[in-house]
């Protein structure tokens, strides 16, 4: 239910952000690395191609999250704390599913790839 949505929306939001930044960085990278070859070449990068670059990581993350949801979804655990004669009850979403670490690893690799493209673009003439 809402526990899975909390986990999944955060991962999907970060992936959308990184995909957008990655697509834009790829465009700059492609233009500048083509300019490095010392020959004037026309660089054509279509919006359709950038949309594919944008969508592939999102689809990979969605697939991983759906596998995790099917195998072992997060569960809501209600916790009560008593302090100064006041009881506070709140719900924690907990999971021990390693699939979420896989998503974090994938997002980390995306960050490294985007950083490498940006660095290589910066080193262009």
UniProtKB/TrEMBL annotation:
The chain crosses the membrane at residues 6-29, 49-69, 99-119. One of its GO terms (cellular component) is plasma membrane. It is found in: Cell membrane. Coiled coil: none annotated. Keywords: Cell membrane, G-protein coupled receptor, Glycoprotein, Membrane, Receptor, Transducer, Transmembrane, Transmembrane helix. GO terms for molecular function: G protein-coupled receptor activity. It is a multi-pass membrane protein. Its main location: membrane. Residues 1-125 form the G-protein coupled receptors family 3 profile domain. This is G-protein coupled receptors family 3 profile domain-containing protein. It comes from Lotharella globosa.
């Amino acid at each position: 239910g809402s526990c899975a949505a909390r986990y999944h929306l955060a991962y999907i939001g970060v992936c959308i952000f990184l995909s957008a930044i990655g697509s834009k960085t790829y465009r700059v990278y492609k233009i500048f690395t083509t300019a490095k070859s010392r020959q004037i070449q026309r660089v054509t990068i279509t919006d359709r191609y950038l949309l594919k670059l944008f969508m592939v990581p999102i689809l990979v993350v969605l697939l991983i999250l759906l596998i995790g949801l099917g195998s072992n979804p997060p569960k809501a655990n209600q916790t009560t704390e008593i302090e100064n004669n006041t009881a506070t009850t709140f719900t924690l979403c907990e999971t021990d599913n390693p699939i979420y670490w896989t998503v974090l690893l994938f997002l980390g690799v995306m960050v490294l790839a985007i950083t490498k493209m940006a660095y290589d673009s910066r080193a262009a003439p």
